[in-house]
Amino acid sequence: MKGTGIPADSVVLSAAEATALADRWFAARCAAEDVATAVDEGADRDELARLSAVLVELALDAERLR
Length: 66
What we know:
Elements: H1 15-40, H2 45-63
Helix pairs in contact: 1-2
């Protein structure tokens, strides 16, 4: 990106990818809130395991740049 003023180690995302990344992180945050709510409400181990698996899956998806 020589001559642009943008540092060479920068990551440039299209507007669509930035939106998709924000959407993936929002989904992961919502899943984390679901886990917290389930804990507060005394959910059983199976429900917490299911919600935790969803959270991990969404977090893994969110950390990827496509």
